Amino acid sequence: MKIGELARQTGLSAHTIRYYERIGLLPYADRDRSRQRDYDASILVWIDFLGRLKTTGMPIREMLRYAALRQRGDSTEADRRALLEQHRERVRLHVADLQACLLVLDTKIAGYAGPEPRMKNHDAPTDERRRKPAGARTARAR
User: Fold this and answer.
1) CB atoms within 10 A of CB 67
2) How does pLDDT run across 72-96, given as a tens digit for each residue?
3) Which residues lie closer than 8 Å to 1 by C-beta, 6 or more apart?
4) Low-confidence spans in the chain with pLDDT less than 50
5) Which end of the chain is more exposed for a tag (fewer CB within 10 A), N or C?
6) Cα three-residue angle 49-51-52, rounded to 5 degrees
7) Taking CA 101 as the corner, what is the angle to CA 100 and CA 106, rounded to the nearest 5 degrees?
8) CA distance 95 to 99
9) Going by C-beta distance under 8 Å and a sequence separation of 6 or more, which residues neighbour residue 9?
10) Which of 60, 4, 58 is CA-nearest to residue 29?
């Protein structure tokens, strides 16, 4: 398949495909008689995997490391697995952080559903809130 078709199928621009090829993230494509890139359909699976790594926040330098290990063959399976396991742990921690953020958002949204003045007070700009100076004490009745 030509680079334009690959770009359409993957959502990557032709420029990005050429860049990935140049830095070694994608293998060099075969060329047809007119010297145009001619990609095998199997590249789609690899590009999909790279897209998932990118979506999960793997830096390009680690993707390049993985690609280089992959290109060296079966003897690098343990190294590739270790790299993916480390990345998976970072993704799990990020997902946990996102879930905590989602809980805060859900709680905040639920606060707008009812007439709870305390929630509205917490949304007020800081200067509009009644704040006690540091060290101030509440007066007690004697």
Assistant:
1) 22
2) 999 999 999 999 999 999 999 999 9
3) 9, 38, 39, 40, 41
4) 129, 142
5) C
6) 65
7) 100
8) 6
9) 1, 44
10) 4
Residues 6+ positions from 142 with CB-CB distance below 8 Å: none
Which residues are CB-contacts of 2 (< 8 A; sequence separation ≥ 6)? 36, 37, 38, 39
For residue 11, the surrounding DSSP H or E stretch is none
DSSP string, 82-130: HHHHHHHHHHHHHHHHHHHHHHHHHHHHHHHHTT-HHHHHHHS-GGGS-
How many residues belong to the chain?
142
2's tokens:
């030509």
Task: Enter the pTM of the model.
Answer: 0.71
